[in-house]
TrEMBL record:
InterPro entries: Actinin_actin-bd_CS, CH_dom, CH_dom_sf, Spectrin/alpha-actinin, Spectrin_repeat. GO terms for cellular component: membrane; spectrin. This is Spectrin beta, non-erythrocytic 4. CDD domains: CH_SPTB-like_rpt1 (cd21246), SPEC (cd00176). GO terms for molecular function: actin binding; phospholipid binding; structural constituent of cytoskeleton. The keyword Cell inner membrane does not apply. Keywords: Actin-binding, Coiled coil, Repeat. GO terms for biological process: actin filament capping; vesicle-mediated transport.
Length: 1257
């Protein structure tokens, strides 16, 4: 019974899979997609997403590209989420079920989709009670209603009532009686009935054949499959009924549409005619080209008025008729419930109105433009009349003024020329004022030219005539003014020459007064210099006048005066100027000689007075009493020496000038030599007196400096001795350090003054005798005092160092003892707390205490080092220092021991608290793990549950492996604490005992799950290997199913090698296949619950795929071998065809030889050709036979092989006659060769006979 039920379920699932697969493909065909296996092809979620998009008409989120499991799960989740949004209830269906290929849940998902998108929309209303049914009942009711008139059809369900096939035929016959003869059908022939209904539905109605007769004609037909197929009937016939109703409605409206169409055509014709007239009229009246005359514009205005009053009103009436006609059309269409007519191609009333508006706009613009043009033409006529009147007046005025400016009556003196210039300026002013009137004429002509006046050429000619005369008049005026300016400039130049000659005659330069002393001579020279400057200025003016006058002699054309007259006047002025310059130079020389003489006498007198004054100063001064006074006298003497040096050069220059005057023998040179000798003698006395005074001042300065230095050194040494002999050594470290620093500064200063003492002794030896005896005592005293200061300074420095070391040691000792007192008080008062947090705070404080103690230890070591140095140096306070050191070391040892005791106590308390806290944490973790293991128990047999159990237990084992080392460490810690603190041993051991009990319970619980974990591990490894193998199997099947065919021999060989490599790969995977089968058998022997049904399905799929792969490889190998043989055949065919083509070409080039040599060569060629032909004919025959063999073996390229064999045979047939012809030609060639040989022999014999001569003895 159980086996029968399993068989029934298996058959049902197979029918549903086939039906649902066809149903899915019927909808996926809309998007060019297809599935082969319902369970496998929906696993990646891509096809499922496409199916839902087709059914719903909505776009789903884009699927993720990728073949990994996570990608498949994500895609399936998107599809399931979309179904949930469509309010589709999915019970126990998850994304992992579809990805894993769960048959039952995959079929359930497809059935849910069919219900939602195909069956749920069906609703049938009955006629009796208007009751509304839905889904399956509604579909059943529809079938009953459609088959109500068929006596042999009684539909009560979707299973057994459809087995005989009459129900399907009845549904088709009810809607399409032309397709089926229902009366001939019998219930006994069920298979025929079903096959006929399915075929007609597929061929005539376009319904996919979802079922086969054997699927329905069975004991228990599948309800879901039949419902799925019947739903397609329902949807098709519902659409057909809707189309029939729509056809009747269209027939009723058709007549009204025909009548409306006629009116529409009439409307469109009239609208087109009116729009064409509007566009043409707009084009005509938009033309803004008018006649360029007043008469022509008046005629155009009259024609425009005729259009507006006669032609336009007619078209306006047609426009109104169009509006009425369109209203009529709309009324008819509205009465027929038809879509309102909308004119196209710009023929709407609004379009016509817009075109009419453009016409009126163009009409308005045309009228405005015509009126403007008429006004413009009238304005141009008035401008032309005004222009003619003004040009006549300007012509007469220009002629009169041209005659006036052509006369040159200027006069012959300056007043007459200036009067003529004023008259000419009046004429120029008059002409300039008349320029605006000429401009008016030009403006009138320009305005008429800009407006396009029709007689503009005449206007422009008269304008150019006026402008030409105006230009000529201005040229005449300019020329006359230039001539006037030349005359005026020449007369002014002549007038200036007269003034210049009069000034020269008035200048007096013949005076004999040269002065009686230096000041008078300087006054005379200054007056003469002014006169020379005036002469220079006047000379430049004369040059300017002469140049200006001579320019008039070189003028070309008009000359205002005779050139000879101008030259005579220029020469007279130049002669007068030269005479005046000569007189001025003579008087300047005389005055300079007088000035040099009187200047010499004055300088010589001043030098004598200066010498006497300096001599008296040198004799009256002393030598000073101290360094300051001596230095002041020396500074004054240096100043005097500088004055002497500067005055010496002045005196020498003066004497040199006196000698020059004597040599020139000028007037007043008597007595110069005596004055010179007297001054020289005075100067020599002054220099000797200055040198002697300088020597005495230097000796006084040296003596004063030595005395001052000796006094300063003694005073400084006395101060230094007072400092270094002080009894103050300080009262503490700071004061002693300050005294030591000051002492070092004093010692450095004493060392620096050693050089001063030595220099003092050297300076004493360099003093003059009269000063040396006075300074010996002070120098000796200074040397003795310096020696005493040095000795006392060394002794005081040693005492200060010793005092500083003692004070430093006492300071460090006091600081260390103060810190020790503070820490002892803290340690005595400290109590170790029981709470862990408080203990950690105290431990942190002890860490800080360690750092402070390390720092203090360094300071104590420094104190010990200082004490040792003092003891080694024999310090006076050695006993006191040693006692202080021993007391400090004793206090340090006590504080160190106390700290260690407190730290040991604190560590023991902290360790115990940490131990108790760790016990609590580990116990809590063990309890949590035990609860997790209890919650992990599994009692099912599906694959998902087994995998979940394996994952959880694997995670749990990792966690327990981490806990076990912690327990061992905790046990060691408990034993140590119990031995270290016996009083608290129970407090330490009781928590660990509780943890041990919990740990044993946890291990026993985990031991119960180890078998399941082991089986789950094996199962996971098996599934992973199976999944990897199936993935490889699918990829390899894809490669083996390739339909690629080679196009060349190389490609064929490459594909065969690749296919052979694929076979090797399949061979390598055969071991994996056998291992999977063996693992399956091993898993079957396990007693643990396993998903055997799912594994069997996977293994069945594996067996089918493996066998299919082998078949596909063999099929592909056969195809590739045939393709390789075909390409080998093609290679041989091409070689044979190439050979035949070469031979044919050779035959076509054969020529009949004419000589013996050519005959022999042709014979050799013929033998080679025939030999080659015989060899290759056998090869060609073999190629043809091979082609025939391939054809007989049904090669996949049989048609192409037949074509190439026939073509090769035809070429061979063509070459045979050529061979026969070649054979005949070869025989003829042989005869020709023999004949040629005979002729050659005869010719040689004849030649020998002719050349034969008698022998000479």
């Amino acid at each position: 019974m159980k086996a029968k039920r399993l068989t029934l379920y298996t058959h049902r699932d197979a029918v549903q899979k086939k039906t649902f697969t066809k149903w899915v493909n019927s909808h996926l065909s809309r998007v060019s997609c297809r599935i082969a296996d319902l369970y496998n092809d929906l696993r990646d979620g891509y096809m499922l997403t496409r199916l839902l998009e087709v059914l719903s008409g909505e776009l789903l989120p884009r699927p993720t590209r990728g073949r990994m499991r996570i990608h498949c799960l994500e895609n399936v989740d998107k599809a399931l989420q979309f179904l949930k949004e469509q309010r589709v209830h999915l019970e126990n269906v998850g994304s992992h079920d579809i990805v894993d290929g769960n048959h039952r849940l995959t079929l359930g998902l497809i059935w849910t989709i069919i219900l939602r998108f195909q069956i749920q929309v069906i609703k049938i209303e009955t006629e009796d009670n208007r009751e509304t049914r839905s889904a399956k009942d509604a579909l059943l009711l529809w079938c009953q209603m459609k088959t109500a008139g068929y006596s042999e059809v009684n539909i009560q369900n979707f299973t057994t009532c459809w087995r005989d096939g009459l129900a399907f035929n009845a549904l088709i016959h009810r809607h399409r009686p032309d397709l089926i003869e229902f009366n001939k059908l019998t219930r006994s022939n069920a298979t025929h009935n079903l096959q006929q209904a399915f075929n007609i539905a597929e061929q005539s109605l376009g319904l996919t054949k979802l079922l086969d007769p054997e699927d329905v004609n069975t004991e228990n037909p599948d309800e879901k499959s039949i419902i799925t197929y019947v739903v397609s009937y329902y949807h098709y016939f519902s659409k057909m009924k809707a189309l029939i109703v729509e056809g009747k409605r269209v027939g009723k409206v058709l007549e009204n549409c025909v009548e409306a169409e006629k009116i529409v055509n009439r409307y469109e014709g009239l609208a087109s005619d009116l729009l064409d007239w509007i566009e043409k009229t707009i084009a005509v009246i938009s033309n803004q080209k008018f006649a360029n005359s007043l008469t022509g514009v008046q005629q155009q205005l009259q024609a425009f008025t005729t259009y507006c009053t006669i032609e336009k009103p007619i078209k306006f009436q047609e426009k109104g008729n169009l509006e009425v006609l369109l209203f009529t059309i709309q009324s008819k269409l509205r009465a027929n419930n038809q879509k309102p007519y909308v004119p196209h191609d710009g023929k709407l009333i609004s379009d016509i109105n817009k075109a009419w508006e453009r016409l009126e706009k163009a009409e308005h613009e045309r009228g405005v433009a015509l009126r403007k043009e008429l006004i413009r033409q009238e304005k141009l006529e008035l401008l032309a009349q005004r222009f003619d009147h003004k040009t006549t007046m300007r012509q007469a005025w220009l002629n009169e003024n041209q005659r006036l400016v052509s006369q040159d009556n200027f006069g012959y003196d300056l007043p007459a020329v200036e009067a003529a210039m004023k008259k000419h300026e009046a004429i120029e002013a008059d002409i300039a004022s008349y320029e605006d009137r000429i401009g008016v004429v030009v403006e009138l002509a320009g305005e008429m030219e800009a407006e396009g006046y029709y007689d503009i050429r005449r206007i422009l000619a008269r304008k150019e005539n006026i402008l030409g005369q105006w230009g000529l008049l201005k040229e005449l005026v300019v020329g006359r003014k230039a001539r006037l300016e030349q005359n005026l400039a020449l007369q002014k130049t002549f007038q200036d020459m007269v003034y210049m000659i009069d000034w020269m005659e008035d200048t007096q330069l013949l005076s004999q007064d040269f002065g009686k002393h230096l000041l008078e001579v300087d006054d005379l020279l200054q007056t003469h210099s002014l006169q020379e400057a005036d002469i220079s200025v006047q000379a430049e003016r004369v040059e300017t006048l002469n140049s200006a006058a001579l320019k008039f002699t070189t003028l070309e054309g008009y000359q205002p005066c005779d050139p000879q007259v101008i030259c005579n006047r220029v020469n007279h002025v130049s002669t007068c100027l030269e005479e005046l310059k000569q007189l001025a130079d003579k008087r300047h020389e005389d005055l300079e000689e007088s000035r040099q003489l009187w200047a010499f006498f004055q300088e010589l007198e001043e030098s004598a007075v200066w010498i006497r004054e300096k001599s008296s100063i040198l004799g009256a001064q002393g030598y000073g009493k101290d360094v300051t006074s001596v230095l002041k006298l020396l500074q004054k003497h240096k100043t005097l020496a500088g004055e002497l040096l500067a005055h010496r050069s002045l005196l020498q220059n003066t004497i040199k000038r006196g000698k020059q005057i004597l040599s020139e023998q000028s007037f007043g040179a008597a007595g110069i030599q005596d004055h010179i000798l007297e001054v020289k003698a005075d100067w020599k006395n002054l220099e000797d007196q200055a040198a002697l005074r300088l020597h005495h001042l230097q000796e006084a300065l040296n003596a004063s400096q030595f005395s001052t230095e000796t006094d300063d050194l003694l005073a400084w040494l006395q101060d230094a001795y007072r400092l270094v002999s002080s009894e103050d050594f300080g009262h503490d470290e700071y004061s002693t350090r300050s005294l030591l620093k000051k002492h070092r500064d004093v010692s450095d200063a004493v060392d620096k003054h050693r050089s001063h003492v030595v220099a003092l002794r050297q300076h004493l030896g360099a003093l003059p005798t009269q000063y040396r005896d006075q300074e010996v005592r002070g120098a000796v005293l200074a040397e003795q005092l310096y020696t005493e200061v040095v000795e006392v300074a060394v002794l005081r420095q040693q005492w200060l160092h010793d005092a500083l070391a003692v004070y430093r040691m006492f300071s460090e000792v006091n600081a260390c003892e103060l810190w020790i007192d503070e820490k002892e008080q803290w340690l005595d008062k400290m109590e170790v707390p029981e709470r862990l947090e408080d203990v950690e705070v105290v431990a942190h404080r002890f860490e800080s205490l360690d750092q402070e103690m390390n720092s203090l230890m360094g300071r104590i070591l420094d104190v010990n080092q200082i004490v040792q140095q003092l003891l080694d140096g024999g310090h006076p306070s050695s006993t006191e220092v040693r006692g202080c050191q021993d007391h400090l070391n004793s206090r340090w040892n006590q504080i160190v021991e106390l700290v260690e005791q407190r730290k040991d106590h604190l560590d023991s308390v902290l360790r115990l608290q940490n131990y108790l806290l760790e016990c609590t944490e580990i116990k809590s973790q063990i309890q949590d793990k035990r609860k997790a293991i209890d919650a992990t128990q599994y009692a099912g047999s599906d694959l998902g549950g087994v995998l979940a159990l394996q994952r959880r237990l694997s995670t749990m084992e990792g966690a327990l492996s981490v806990l076990e080392p912690k327990l061992m460490h905790l046990q060691e810690e408990a034993e140590h604490l119990a031995s270290a603190q016996p009083a608290r041993a129970m407090e330490v051991l009781v928590p660990f005992e509780g943890i041990s009990v919990e740990w044993e319970e946890l291990k026993r619980t985990l031991q119960g799950c180890e078998d399941s974990l082991m089986v789950a591990g094996r199962l996971q490894s098996f599934i992973q290997d199976l999944d990897s193998f199936l993935t490889w199997l699918v990829q390899t099947q894809t490669s083996a199913a390739s339909d690629q065919l080679p196009n060349t021999l190389e490609e064929a060989e490459k594909l065969i090698n690749k296919h052979a490599a694929l076979k090797e790969e399949i061979g390598r995977y055969e071991e994996d296949y056998e291992r999977l089968q063996a693992v399956n058998e091993l898993l079957e022997t396990e007693e643990a619950p396993l998903p055997h049904a799912a594994l069997q399905q996977w293994l069945q799929k594996l067996d089918v795929g493996w066998n299919k792969l082998l078949e596909m490889w063999e099929s592909r190998r056969e195809v590739l071998v045939q393709a390789h043989i075909f390409h080998l055949f093609l290679r041989d065919v091409k070689q044979a065809e190439s050979f035949l083509n070469n031979q044919e070409s050779a035959l076509a080039l054969v020529e009949v030889p004419t000589t013996v040599e050519t005959v022999e060569a042709a014979l050799r060629k013929h033998k080679d050709f025939t030999t080659t032909m015989e060899l290759n004919l056998h090869r060609i025959k073999a190629v043809i036979e091979a082609g025939e063999s391939l054809i007989s073996q049904n090669n996949i390229y049989s048609d192409r092989i037949r074509q190439r064999v026939d073509a090769l045979a035809n070429e061979g047939m063509y070459i045979v006659p050529s061979l026969l012809l070649l054979l005949i030609q070869s025989q003829e060639t042989e005869r020709e060769r023999k004949l040629a040989c005979y002729r050659t022999s005869v010719s040689l014999a004849t030649l020998l006979l002719q050349n034969k001569r008698p022998l000479q003895i």
